[in-house]
Amino acid sequence: MKTTPFRSGFVAVFGRPNVGKSTLLNAILGEKLAIVSARPNTTRRQQLGIHTTDTSQIIFIDTPGINRPRQQMDKFMAASADRALNDADALLWVVDVSQRPGGGDRFIARRIAETLDKKPAVIAMNKMDLLKPKHVLENTAAYAELMPHAKWMLTTATRDDNIQELLALLAETLPEGDVIYDQELYTTSNVRDMAAELIRETALEHLREEIPHGLAVQIDEFDESDAPGLTRVYATVFLEQERHRRIFIGKKAEMLKTISSSSRKKIESLLGGKVYLEIFVKILSEWRNSEKHVRDMGYRIEDL
Fold first, then answer.
1. Fewer Cβ close by (within 10 Å): the C or N end of the chain?
2. Residue 14's pLDDT band (boundaries 50, 70, 90)?
3. Sorting pLDDT into bands at 50, 70 and 90, what band is 210?
4. For the residues 50-71, what does the mean pLDDT come to?
5. Whether residues 204 and 121 fall in one domain
6. How many domains does the chain contain in total?
7. Which residues touch 71 (CB under 8 Å, ≥6 apart)?
């Protein structure tokens, strides 16, 4: 009786901003790993998501959306995406199939063709629920033509449509090998980083358009020793302008209270216990365009 070989390896997840990359990864893992927002460029760091079955272990590297870098922060994000693409065994390109390919999609396809054309790839043609029947053939064909060596699958991350079929395609692209990470793990991210990302996600949900890209979160203290079942979290939110600080805090500190309360509940869900959360707000002018400030925030290329 022939047995199915076990396959394992790393899959870099990439795509232009706001195509549903993070939502798709969360759907695959069945756990919340990547923060989700309607705003583009939400993902800033590489994150590993681990999906293990009896026949495969797929380690997803969630990368920032691929853009032309303009600021120091953009350069870190671009380097993060490049490192993931080069190190991965296979590629997962997530696109919004409800729309025809745009300039950003063609830019990504050219970069892949120039440097990584030989790597196995799968296209997740996401948001199929928004795809009009009359556009199915032309839109799918348009994306397939941009990466002709790739297999593809229509998906809807918000409804889990074709997620298992997509995983089967990805497993086929990986080499035969042993389990790389403990089968119980779904991520290697530490809880401090995940708590910071949950605070940032909550802020993105509530704040005006001009603020989110200039917002960063640092965890100053993460103390689980104070009392059984209670974790004390002290965080600092950095903003680039004083007027943004006023908006973040809000009249009578109502916005700060709203963000703090919602963030606390998310962190409690992550940790499975009670959380005391206190958020401080500071101004750090133009931090995204300062190499020193970007590094101080923990975005260091050598740590990738």
1. N
2. confident
3. low
4. 80
5. no
6. 2
7. 288, 289
